[in-house]
Amino acid sequence: MRTTRSILTLLLSGALVFTAACSNNGGESQAPAKEGEAAAVAADPNAPGWKADTSPITFDWYLNFSWFPNKWGVDPTSQYITKKTGVNLNFIVPAGNENEKLNTMIASGKLPDFITLGWYEDNVKKMIEGGLVLPLNKLAEQYDPYFVKVADPAKVSWYTQPDGSVYGYPNASSSPKDYQKFGDKQTSNQTFVVRKDMYEALGRPDMRTPEGFVNALKAAKEKFPEVNGQPLIPLGLHEFGDTGNYSLEGFLQNFLAIPMEKDGKLYDRYTDSEYLKWLKTLRKANEMGLLAKDIFIDKRPQMEEKISQGRYFAMMYQRTDFAAQQNAIYAKDPNSVYIAVDGPANAKGDPPTLAGPAISGWTVTLISKDVKDKARAIRFLTYLLSEEGQKDMYLGEKGVTYDTIDGKDQFKPEVLELLNKDRSAFDKKYGASHTFWMLMDTNMNLQWAPPAVEPAKQLEDWTKGKTRGFSQFDQINPTGTSEEGIAQGKITQAFGKTLPKLLLAKSDAEFDQLFEKFLKDRQSAGYDKVKAYQQKKYDENVKKLEQFMK
């Protein structure tokens, strides 16, 4: 599942991450006296290790998200954390293609101190297998056993590698016990949205059926050909990439409530008749001139600009990814915001089964073998995972961004007002509410989170009751240089090339030919091996999760 990928600008309302660059002092910069001090601290597993040394240090932190816009140290929250812990962060963010930047760094054999990327990225395995990142459990054992106190055992177990070590820790992760505890509050990021004023002007059409869907796009284009002098874009989607399009894969399949397994055997959702019927519906929409060329080429920055201009009629898009634009629209004209409505559905009209937070989370954070100070790095990571660190990252500094009001620690009124009005301005002015989301715990944060307000509330509420946990299906795809990993890479690349062609096909017959070719290419790439690998991993996951429920 690629939940978050964009994520997600933020599962709870926003946020981003810090990063760090390589230094030439080869691993440990601590003098022997400090090493002794580290060992002494290790003797007390009940005390946070970061308190032993708060001298100034700057870590380079690489974030594999080109859209991440924030800098550490310009807002009071990050300044407060640096003053308290001594740790300053220098974020490194790729200017263009994320994978090219990270692949270049991996090939060089030198990495920044911390690295944060989506858990689903092939490069996670490459870095672990290449010996480029350090085992967190061993760092903790040596320098900060308090890590064991604050790390979730289920998440540690989930990310433990065959060698018995854990190299990455997730953000926005929910274990089975989290689901038991917070189940009724769990929401999904997956929404189908329409521009409220246009949708209502069209008589709130039913868009659950292929006919209703296409008719609504057509009616919107006819009634609203332009938005402020620019052409209306009837349908918006996540960006097309080398391996496909999130909106048109797991996202659409979840809206159609296509099962992920049947009787314990993984189900091939890509060949499901409902799924193919809806892809053909989109092909038909394109033939009718209802899919703008923009959607095949635009990246997230271009899409954000067009969302803020209100140029999309409908979007199959993650709600938190356009929260900042939505707030800006709402401030100008509450009637022109995007609202969640029932979108594509299967022939029975079943409600969607939307992806909620899973144990894998959204991103993982790793510590490089080149880290300039091992002790300080693991202690800072432990601090960020602890309730103290989570509260600092979420609420900021008492008296500055939050106070105890009516017996509860919560944002000051003027801080909350900006958070609800302009997320980007809030991030820059205050840096709280997980502006820096690298290790945010979206369940722990619920104790401080203010209640959702419009325009976010409607989107969030719409997903409640439709949200499911799909942890057992996470991390079942082979990665890396194994035979199955190479086959999986070829298959995803083949689908990435085929998907836009399917939508651009001149007829259903051409669509069928293209899809048949993809299935043949998939088979010759080694699909049977991939399938066997996925089934084995899925079976292991089911057993693992049962163990966490005990």
Automatic annotation (TrEMBL):
Signal sequence interval, chain numbering: 1-20
The entry's keywords: Signal
Xref: PROSITE patterns: PROKAR_LIPOPROTEIN (PS51257)
Top-rank taxon: Bacteria
Protein name per Swiss-Prot or TrEMBL: Family 1 extracellular solute-binding protein
Species of provenance: Paenibacillus mucilaginosus 3016
